[in-house]
Amino acid sequence: MSVSHPLLVSAQDGAIPIRFVQAGGVLDDAARRWGDRHGFEGKPGQLLVVPDADGEIGQVVVGAGATFDPMSVRGLSARLPGGLYRLEVAAQDAELATLAFLLGAYVFDRYKARPDRTPVRLVALDGVDVAEISRIAAACALAREMVDTPAADMGPLQIETIAREIAESAGAEITVTTGDALLEDNYPAVHAVGRAAAPHRAPRLIEIGWKLDRTDLPLIALVGKGVVFDTGGLDLKPAAGMRNMKKDMGGAAHALALGRLVMQADLPVRLVVIVAAVENAVSADAFRPGDILNSRKGLTIEIGNTDAEGRLILADALTRAGEHQPDLTLDFATLTGAARIALGPELPPLYTDDEALAAGLLAAAGQVRDPLWRMPLWPGYRGALDAEIADLRNDPAGWAQAGSVTAALFLQKFAPTTGAWAHMDIFAWNPRARPGYPEGGEAQALRACYAMLRARYVD
């Protein structure tokens, strides 16, 4: 499917050059004199707008430090005056630098009027696959928009609506199981977590299937956690912990965005996208600490903490993915605060016991500058999931301490066994604003996973 981005144009007439200069690099006379006057030294992030003889913008010079990082282009859109620009970068950096520019141009303005501003547009350089870059930028924007949208406007029904639009545009099949039908169709954990919500925000299991009749193609399953708002349930979060819980559906947003990207690019795979969309609300019918929940796999789960709900809905979703016998399963979830304690907000942990998949994901992450850090599925902590009166517990015993690791071990018990599986414990959020990275929703691991899929099945 051909896609083009409104900020990319082919015409070069009048385009202002953007040059990247390393510390101590050579500048032309006009830029050097102007740079000396304004203290430009080529440090990373320094930006120098150099006027021409008529007082218009003649060129833009950007400090690159010791080496040029194509992702540094991400911060330019927010810092440049409106107009048409042309990146002057090496051919091998052109695609990633162009994509970085588009990622940095994202603005969430659904609820706030912005002053009219001449857009900052970019010339599409020769050799750049405009359709591919536009698809990737649009996928990241979709994930970020879904995360940024408040829970009142991004409930289970709205996630279903987005999924239906994605499926319809790709000619894919979609099925949705909602409310008490979840019990009839054997999704008891999804039902238990979401049953306390208002009727119009009933829980649901959303499944998209694409090219499933092409049995000659490998089958990929994408699974996402879609908790549209997490109060913590009866184990209520404090106000500070609840403030940004609209983003707890970030895993669902990533699974849907990546699924759309795979279908738009027409990758040679079969695809299943499974999203469990619920609100972890508080009501007289909320599930309780001490309850024993059934799961689709047949394992019983003792509830020690109702705020560890994401792994419960993923248990049913991963089990359903396994019934398709996928060759590869990727799941995305804003699962634990422990992941942030271990690695912070910008570096999502990756869990897999498949060495080839780990190597492929980490190589892709480095190639496209979408970082991941592999964490261990440490078997010594499996005992922390043992329960006295059920098959396992949702709140691992405190002696294990490693909350992100034990959450991944919990999911591993339900992950498909027919192929490789990887779990990404993403944050899906920028906690601090800076050029190209506004505070709010962020796409994490999405580009790395897509690049890995292309490397595995296309390139």
Automatic annotation (TrEMBL):
<dbReference type="Pfam" id="PF21337">
    <property type="entry name" value="Peptidase_M17_N_1"/>
</dbReference>
<keyword id="KW-0378">Hydrolase</keyword>
<dbReference type="GO" id="GO:0006508">
    <property type="term" value="P:proteolysis"/>
</dbReference>
<dbReference type="InterPro" id="IPR048816">
    <property type="entry name" value="Peptidase_M17_N_1"/>
</dbReference>
<keyword id="KW-0464">Manganese</keyword>
<dbReference type="InterPro" id="IPR043472">
    <property type="entry name" value="Macro_dom-like"/>
</dbReference>
<dbReference type="GO" id="GO:0030145">
    <property type="term" value="F:manganese ion binding"/>
</dbReference>
<comment type="similarity">
    <text>Belongs to the peptidase M17 family.</text>
</comment>
<dbReference type="GO" id="GO:0070006">
    <property type="term" value="F:metalloaminopeptidase activity"/>
</dbReference>
<dbReference type="GO" id="GO:0005737">
    <property type="term" value="C:cytoplasm"/>
</dbReference>
<dbReference type="InterPro" id="IPR011356">
    <property type="entry name" value="Leucine_aapep/pepB"/>
</dbReference>
<dbReference type="InterPro" id="IPR000819">
    <property type="entry name" value="Peptidase_M17_C"/>
</dbReference>
<keyword id="KW-0645">Protease</keyword>
<feature type="domain" description="Cytosol aminopeptidase">
    <location>
        <begin position="305"/>
        <end position="312"/>
    </location>
</feature>
<protein>
    <submittedName>
        <fullName>Leucyl aminopeptidase family protein</fullName>
    </submittedName>
</protein>
<keyword id="KW-0031">Aminopeptidase</keyword>
<dbReference type="Pfam" id="PF00883">
    <property type="entry name" value="Peptidase_M17"/>
</dbReference>
